[in-house]
Structures are given as C-alpha cells and as structure tokens.
Amino acid sequence: QQQVKQSPQSLIVQKGGISIINCAYENTAFDYFPWYQQFPGKGPALLIAIRPDVSEKKEGRFTISFNKSAKQFSLHIMDSQPGDSATYFCAASYQGAQKLVFGQGTRLTINP
Amino acid sequence: DGGITQSPKYLFRKEGQNVTLSCEQNLNHDAMYWYRQDPGQGLRLIYYSQIVNDFQKGDIAEGYSVSREKKESFPLTVTSAQKNPTAFYLCASSQSGGGEVGGYTFGSGTRLTVV
Questions:
Q1: How many Å lie between the alpha carbon of A92 and the closest alpha carbon of chain B?
Q2: Would you tell me how many other CB atoms lie within 10 Å of the CB of residue A36?
C-alpha cells in the first residue's frame, strides 16, 4: 500500500513532442505528489509538485495532472527538448510522514 | 550557498574493507537520508534519520551502518558484510520527513566501486 508504481520504465520522444509519464498509488493518505528530475551522475532535483486539492498544476512546459478518484497522477512535458533527457521520479507522501515513497523512475530520451 | 556535500565523488573499495561515505548539509534540515542507485534503477532507501542520535533502517539496510551525532552530518559506512556494494550512493536532506516543505535536497552522489 506504500508503493508508487511508475510507467513506462523508458520513453523515447521526438523533439517538440509531448512526453507523458504516469504514476499510480494505493495509499489514500498520500496528499503530496512531487516529481524529481535526475541528470546522469547527479542527484535528483525537485521539478514540480501537486496536492490533491487541484487537478492540474503547470510550471512552464511541465504539467502535473492529478486524478484523485483513480489514484493516478502524471507528468506532461510539452514541446520536449533534448535538454529534458533525464530520469524522472514520481513520489508521494503525507503530512507527518517520515519519508517520501519514490516510483521506480522513467528514463526519458528526447531525440533531436 | 546552502546545500549538501557528499565526499568523495569516487571511491574504490577492496574486498573485505569497510568504507565510509561522508554527507554534510548546511541547510539546517532535521531529516537526512541515504539512497542506493544501481545502473538504470530507481532509488532504494538504506537508512534515514529524523533527529540527532536517532535513525531507522530503510528497505536495504543490511551491510550498512550510519551515525547521526551532529545535525549537519550523516555518514554511511559500507561494511564488508555488503556483498555487492558497487553502486551510486545519494544522500538527501529535508525540512520535513515527507518532503512537502521545500522538497528533498540531494547531494551529487558518491560512486563506489569494488576492485
């Protein structure tokens, strides 16, 4: 119940396309859903996060869509660029939690 | 600048040796974490600490040990009992355990190789 399932494991998108990464969770206590971006040889960095009181949050080309009834959330990268090539992790937690629960990661490659 | 410093960046261990990875933060964060990342894999939690002098095992604690004597420091020792230690090790800290306040801040990692 503490797991967050992320898909796909890897994704190849053409430059200018839309990249979509999906995550699903079971624990209805989760109320915070961040996405982290990791470049090779570096630590992950917080990209964008959402709480369940909204269905969508947009920051530049990055959008989180949240479906509370389906217990799913997704990251959309519009106009994908080669510089977006990285590994993306979704995660979840709740107020008072001792740690984030991370998804398994998606390796995104944007072809020029 | 505030952040997390991991050292060394690269570390080589001989069979049967214990090695210690350093993690220091100047963010005044209470919580600190150690993750292991294998090539093409996700983040697996080794140990975490919410306060000084207290820490909990994560999902893969066997063969590892930690200490939290100071708020700023959370060193990880990879013992000889860890049979497959070659991996990328990441340290993180956060203001709140679930990361909802400011998120997790990660270091740049230590790449450990057994020779």
A1: 8
A2: 26
- The 10s digit of each residue's pLDDT in B27-84 is 999 999 999 999 878 999 999 999 999 999 999 999 999 999 999 999 999 999 998 9
Which strands sit side by side in the sheet containing B76-78, from one edge to the other? B4-7, B19-25, B76-78, B64-66
How close, in Å, is residue B97 to chain A by CA atoms? Answer: 4
Which residue out of B89, B104, B105 would a mutagenesis test of the A interface target, given it has the greatest number of A Cβ atoms within 10 Å? B104
Contact B43 A105 (CB under 8 A): yes
